[in-house]
Amino acid sequence: IAAKDRKIALWNIGVAYTAFLIGTLCGLLQVFIRNDALQLPAWLDYYQILTAHGVLLALIYTAFFIFGFFVTGMSKTLGTFGPKVWLFSWIGFWVTLAGTVLATIMIVSGEASVLYTFYAPLKASGWYYVGLALYVVGTWISSFALIAHYLVWRKAHKGEMSPLFAFMTIATLVLWLIACLGVVATVLFQYIPWAFGWTDTINVELSRSLFWYFGHPLVYFWLLPAYMAWYLIVPKLLGVKVFSDSLARLSFVLFILFSIPVGFHHQLTEPGISNFWKFLQVVLTFMVIVPSLMTAFSMFATFETSGRKKGAKGLFGWFAMLPWKDVRFTSIFIAMAFFIPGGAGGIINASFQLNEVVHNTLWIVGHFHITVGTPVAMTFMGMTFWLIPYLTGRKFTKSMQRLGFVQIITWSIGMLLMSTAQHVLGLLGAPRRTAYSSYNNHPAALEWFDGILTSHVTMAIGGSILFISAMMLMYIVVMTMFLSPKAEKPEDIVEFPLADSDRESSPKFLENWKIWIGIAFALILIAYAIPLSSMIQHAPPGSEGLKTW
Ligand code: HAS
Q: Which CDD domains match (predicted)?
């Protein structure tokens, strides 16, 4: 792709890995604090670090990496950015970065220890929310720049299906834009007036609901770019085509429809929402599981097709034919394998009654480490191994490939230890988000942590292995970004591995955005209009700030 487009992608990825470095360090500190092995200085507390860890990894690392990937892929599949797309991609990048820096300063200075799920009644400095608003606006500008690039392409290719990469990027951005409406509404109309003291109090139930309207699709904003790698990059590494172009498109469309009207499954224990609306959203949550099952089916079909092509026999013969020596593939395969228990855990969380057992326990922390922390993060790692060298034109040497293997294996072992401990501790009743010292050495509370798998020591060992793994990845990132020799021989040049797909055979209506966005809004109205308006009507006294909100 053109050098000027590469630069935007590289800056995005550079910021992503800076956030990754600080965020993983905060993770390391955290497991030691919970283990009571580390005393923090007076100006730093557990919740400050927990907030930095969550925000930097879940919101900042992901978003910048995703935009770096999108910019690269959109420039590759649809052509070099025009001057306006290029300009707005930069403006979007800088505005997102400004918001990130402001929010991070507030967290580090102890003014925003409100966690990455920053909803009320916790309150931060007003500037933290301004930082978040800038972050969202920045991502919107970057999104609209990419959408404009796509529209220009479509105008020039009337009647054609767009390349699968572009379609998936647009679907993910549409999901993101609709999801952000909730967080923008609550930040602008509730948090900022409240935090700056312009209103006395806040309508807590409404603010939490608007947050989760955004918070759940947020997880699919992380997942879908990983799925793009599964659908588009994995088959290329296996030497086959995308298994089914239309299945892939349909699964992304289903995410647009069903990932948003489901936020109440994070609020099943909250008394301010009636059971009917909770149940409706639980049903819709079960619908959003379908595109992931379709993805799983599609992956197995891809593995099998490639295996058979290479002569595999029997039911599982294809397994041995997979390219295990290719770190780009192996890391993604392990990521997928983690998503089997990760997804099953999600189904448990979403089951109305079972949620009572796991809500607000360490189980949830275990759940998100084997969803975003492994399937998504390890897919991004597998992509990093070729994406950065592709953009910088540097070598990804044999020794880096070996280090890459050590890195992904240590990441898997660390996550396995840490997240298993978290799941088991959660089932025993250990709360999430509670610093060790807060148990006040209560004997009943400490019993949770007596087991071999359930001790804080296991979590700390897991966390330490993860940190070492993260540092290996940082080494590879720095080398491929700045130091590794330039690839001159053709065999050293790193490619963007993108599989072919039979887009001509896919039905045209799959790319009719009006239909999908229309149905998405209809479902949102059905799921949210009545409960949200009743929250507004029954706002507690003093929280009618800016009257209706
Ligand atoms: Fe979740 C809480 C329900 C998926 C992230 N989730 C969270 C939180 C986060 C998070 C961060 O209903 C915590 C929020 C907080 O701080 O409070 N989640 C679900 C459901 C799914 C799900 C139904 N979650 C995700 C993904 C995430 C993520 C993806 C990040 C990227 N989650 C919940 C619920 C809660 C929740 C409740 C609230 C709990 C509470 O009470 O607080 C589904 O989307 C899952 C569907 C997935 C599958 C798996 C398909 C498997 C595939 C792999 C195939 C493997 C292959 C490899 C091919 C059905 C695609 C083969 C290999 C071999 C070795 C055989």
A: ba3-like_Oxidase_I
Tokens representing 13 are 């990825």
List residues with catalytic annotation: 216, 220, 367-369, 432-433
Rounded CA separation 329/385 (Å): 10
Amino acid 440: pLDDT: 61
Residues 412/358, Cβ–Cβ less than 8 Å: no
275-309 and 327-350 are packed helices; what angle lies between their axes, rounded to 10 degrees? 150
Q: Are 405 and 489 in contact (CB under 8 A)?
A: no
Residue 548 has what pLDDT?
A: 42
Is the C-alpha dihedral spanning 470, 473, 479, 480 positive or negative?
Answer: negative
Q: Which residue has the tokens 């969803």?
A: 371
ipTM over 0.95: yes
**Amino acid, res. 501:** S
Q: Identify the residue with better confidence: 132 or 537.
A: 132
Tally: H helices and E strands in the chain: 19, 0
Query: What count of residues does the chain have?
Result: 549
Q: Which of 409, 369, 405 is nearest to 385 (CA)?
A: 405
CA dihedral 97, 102, 107, 110 (to 10 degrees): 160
Name the DSSP letter for residue 242. -
CATH domain 3-537 topology: Cytochrome C Oxidase; Chain A (1.20.210)
pLDDT digits (tens, 9 = 90+) for 184-230: 999 999 999 999 999 888 999 999 999 999 999 999 999 999 999 99
- Please give the Cα distance from 433 to 399 (Å, whole number): 40
Sign of CA dihedral 6, 402, 299, 349: negative
Ligand 1 center–CA 284 separation, angstroms? 15
Dist CA 44 CA 241 (whole Å)? 52
* Structural domain boundaries in the chain: 3-537
Instruction: Confirm or reject: Cβ of 373 under 6 Å from ligand 1.
Output: no
Inter-residue contact 68 to 16 (CB < 8 Å): yes
155-163 contact pairs (CB < 8 A, 24+) = 161/245, 161/503, 161/504, 161/506, 161/508, 161/510, 161/511, 162/78, 162/503, 162/511, 163/77, 163/78, 163/501, 163/503
Average pLDDT over residues 460-466: 87
Q: How would you classify residue 339: left for phi > 0, otherwise alpha for psi between -120 and 50, otherwise beta?
A: alpha
Query: Residue 180: is it exposed, middle or buried by C-beta count within 10 angstroms (0-12/13-18/19+)?
Result: buried
> What amino acid is encoded at 388 in this protein?
I
- Note the helical H segments in 35-61: 46-54
| Candidate from 367, 369, 372, 416 with most ligand 1 atoms within 8 A of CB, to mutate | 367
| Cα 527 from Cα 533, distance rounded (Å) | 12
- Residue 156 has a CB neighbour count (10 Å cut-off) of 10
| Ligand 1 pocket, mutate which of 266, 284, 306, 412 (most atoms under 8 A from CB) | 266
Ligand 1 atom at minimal distance to the Cα of residue 351: 12
Whose CA is closest to atom 56 on ligand 1?
A: 336
CA distance 194 to 184: 15
